[in-house]
Design goal:
The complex is a heterodimer of chains A (368) and B (321).
Chain A (H helix, E strand, L loop, with lengths): L6 E5 L7 H23 L4 H13 L2 H26 L7 H17 L10 H30 L3 H21 L40 H18 L1 H11 L1 H6 L4 H28 L10 H11 L4 H18 L7 H21 E5 L2 H6 L1
Antiparallel strand pairs in A: 1-2
Helix pairs in contact in A: 1-13, 2-3, 2-12, 3-7, 3-10, 3-11, 3-12, 4-5, 4-6, 4-10, 4-11, 5-6, 5-10, 7-8, 7-12, 11-12, 11-13
Chain B lengths: L2 H27 L7 H19 L2 H25 L4 H19 L13 E2 L10 H6 L2 E2 H19 L1 H11 L1 H6 L4 H27 L12 H11 L4 H20 L5 E2 L2 E2 L1 H4 L4 H26 L19
Helix pairs in contact in B: 1-6, 1-9, 1-10, 1-11, 2-3, 2-4, 2-9, 2-10, 3-4, 3-9, 6-7, 6-11, 10-11, 10-13, 11-13
Chain lengths: 368, 321
């Protein structure tokens, strides 16, 4: 077996500013084309599926509101992943941190930690958000410290913790918190609900029935904060430096151990907040399947956005649309497939940024 | 509790981890880390079951699973070897891709029953008291394949010329390159072989150990556990085998804990409160974490490291990181 080398990669010094965005867009489009081929192979009509896709997610304001609902956790998780990935910390555990955050937020109502009738709504919601973030951060502390102190592969640890968090949440909803034997808690009182657009229907009739909730505001604020951290703060520069060149960072006197743990915890806090918004803003109870693999999609969102917080907003809307549409589309794996292909194309396209590609003809090669 | 049965089924479920982890060991020895084992196993499980179900021939199913796992791994190989992409992200996306492919192509297979790998009893060896019952009687053929795989792969890695090349490419590719070993070809080859083993491991679930297709619950994290096992085992097939079987036994043991009313003479909490079962189900994942911590601290004490070039792309004339 001889692998020919007709292509030659020359390390590129620089690339045009529009190139990263262009490769991302091209990757998404190409992913749809390739998935279309797979769909056609299974006997479905890809064009029909895609036009349905579009209608189900952008066809009306109501549909778009659903997209925003799905985009909210993706945005928060994608931001957390962007921060961690800048340091080359592979936090794949957003799914687990999401569940722990949802669990902690639910505890406020289920234990209950405060008097639900007399405490004002803003206080309950703030407490739920704070505990959700705390839960996610503490859960992410485990892989953080194992990585920082013992250099143990954080991918596997975070993945194992995902399974454990789901089972932990199941223990409560099947057991002590179960409502009448169903696998869910009771519905939270309205005092613990994040405000929705539909709440404003009295003043603005156009909003009636719209489920988009205030969680998206958390996401947008977080995007600004993460942007400021990464691009405008000294600490953000340190994080990026540790990711790009840990040796140089160590010589520069940057505390890698502390930053590893800290970045992991912030990343986890954002995922935990996502879990809180889901129980408080969408389902209003803790139940099974509060997540449709948000934790994993968040990884792809971060990567597709090239770890840029503002791009994360756009990409999470796109992936929210994908999730909304794929709810009703068979076979159910199609959204996974598109996500997987997109991610693959994105990382392959990075070669265009890093290298100038030259075709080398055999004759040229011998001439050299 | 029936100890013979616990050990028997531990060996049989451990075989899945064993096959996948030996494949990943070979891949990682060449300097390529493929975290997509879970995805390749899912595709293998789907392809194996689907082809076996459609043709009625379980061996064709196995072949299809091996081919499917191998083909999928080539995507990782191209992206990480030629395009020099980050191996972590590529492996992750391979898992997504494999999961998506398996769910789409496996649509409608749930609930079907197909042919399974035949079982066999080894004459003479099965007469050994206890051990014969546990290890050599009425197992499916893949379990025996696993017994052969361990010494063979160890011999291959440590005692043959090809194995020497493999280790050289993973430890010091620049030196291997100057001695005329084709780095890219070697890495492609072992990434492919690792994929084939992962596909086979997936099929070992769907046509032998727990026959059937249960969407992504078929593999349910075992691919990740296999990746962890490789690290725990310090890239050594014997330790892979030990860890794989031990893991299988412990897993079965925790499942069996729910059965008896009395446990070590005390009332069994798992029998009287069925919700505590969720904690038993956590056991394999907690065990994996403990095994990783244990394995990596043992490695540090004995100064055993991962293959030195693991995760670093190679390009002739460029300094590695």
């Amino acid at each position: 077996m001889k692998i020919p080398y007709p292509v030659f990669f020359k390390r590129a010094e620089d690339y045009p500013k529009w190139l990263p965005a262009a490769t991302s867009v091209a990757a998404v489009l190409l992913a749809f084309v390739i998935s279309g081929v797979v769909l056609a192979a299974t006997g479905a009509d890809p064009l029909k599926v895609y036009s349905y896709f579009f209608k189900a997610s952008f066809g009306s304001w109501g549909a778009f509101s659903d997209v925003v609902v799905k985009a909210t956790p993706l945005l928060l998780i994608g931001l957390g992943c962007s921060l961690a990935f800048r340091m080359r910390l592979w936090n794949i555990g957003a799914e687990g941190q999401f569940f722990v955050g949802a669990f902690m937020a639910s505890a406020v109502v289920m234990v209950p930690l405060v008097n639900l009738d007399t405490t004002p709504r803003w206080a309950i919601i703030s407490l739920m958000a704070a505990l959700g973030m705390l839960g996610g951060a503490l859960y992410a502390f485990i892989p953080g410290i194992l990585k920082a102190k013992l250099n143990i592969n954080e991918i596997i640890i975070t993945l194992m913790l995902n399974y454990i968090a789901v089972l932990w949440s199941n223990y409560w909803i099947f057991g002590n918190w179960s409502e009448a034997g169903f696998q869910m808690t009771k519905t939270f009182p309205k005092n613990a609900w994040l405000p929705r657009l539909a709440d404003l229907a009295a003043e603005f009739p156009a909003f009636s029935g719209m489920t988009a909730h205030a969680g998206i505001l958390f996401g947008l604020i977080a995007a600004v904060i993460v942007y400021l951290i990464i691009y405008r703060s000294k600490w953000g520069y340190k994080i990026t430096l540790i990711g790009d060149n840990p040796r140089a960072a160590r010589y520069a006197g940057i505390n890698i151990t502390r930053n590893t743990i800290l970045v992991f915890m912030i990343s986890g806090a954002l995922a935990g907040l996502a879990g809180m918004t889901e129980v408080s803003g969408v389902v209003h109870r803790l139940q099974e399947r509060i997540s449709t693999s948000y934790g994993f999609s968040g990884v792809i969102v971060a990567w597709l956005a090239k770890l840029n917080p503002f791009a994360v907003i756009l990409v999470s809307i796109l992936f929210g649309a994908l999730l909304v549409a794929s709810r009703e589309i068979q076979p159910s794996g199609i959204s996974f497939l598109i996500q997987g292909i997109t991610l693959f194309l994105i990382i392959s396209s990075d070669v265009l940024l890093k290298y100038e590609i030259k075709w080398v003809r055999p004759a040229q090669e011998t001439a050299q | 509790m029936n100890w013979i049965e616990i050990f028997r089924s531990g060996i049989s479920t451990g075989t899945v981890l064993l096959i996948a982890a030996i494949g990943e060991t070979l891949t990682e020895r060449s300097g390529i880390q493929n975290l997509g084992v879970e995805g390749m196993m899912l595709v293998g499980a789907m392809a194996g079951f689907k082809i076996a179900y459609q043709t009625g021939n379980v061996w064709l199913g196995l072949l299809a699973a091996i081919a499917a796992g191998g083909l999928l791994s080539l995507a990782h190989a191209v992206v990480t070897i030629h395009f020099q992409a980050d191996q972590t992200v590529s492996g992750l996306s391979l898992t997504f891709l494999g999961t998506g492919l398996a769910l789409v192509l496996g649509d409608g297979l749930t609930g079907m029953t197909g042919p399974v790998i035949p079982r066999a009893t080894i004459p003479l060896l099965s007469q050994i008291p206890y051990l014969g019952q546990v290890a050599f009687s009425d197992h499916n053929l893949l379990v025996y394949f696993g017994y052969l795989l361990v010494p063979l792969s160890w011999y291959y890695i440590h005692k043959t010329r090809q194995g020497l090349h493999l280790r050289a490419v993973g430890e010091n590719p620049a030196a291997a390159d100057t001695l005329g070993v084709n780095i890219y070809r070697t890495r492609y080859l072992y990434t492919f072989i690792g994929g084939c083993f992962a596909g086979l491991a997936g099929a070992a679930i769907s046509v032998a150990i727990a026959p059937g297709w249960y969407s992504n619950l078929t593999v349910n994290g075992q691919g990740w556990i296999a990746v962890a096992l490789v690290i725990f085992a310090h890239w050594n097939p014997w330790r892979v085998a030990m860890g794989g079987y031990l893991f299988g036994v412990l897993r079965r043991f925790t499942l069996d804990l729910q059965g008896p009313r009395l446990l070590f003479g005390l009332a069994n909490p798992f029998f009287f409160n069925t919700n505590l079962v969720f904690f038993l189900q956590m056991a394999p994942y907690i065990l994996t974490i403990i095994a990783l911590i244990w394995g990596s601290s043992a490695a540090r004490k004995k100064r055993i490291g991962s293959p030195a070039a693991l995760g670093i792309p190679y390009q002739r004339g460029e300094r590695g990181l």
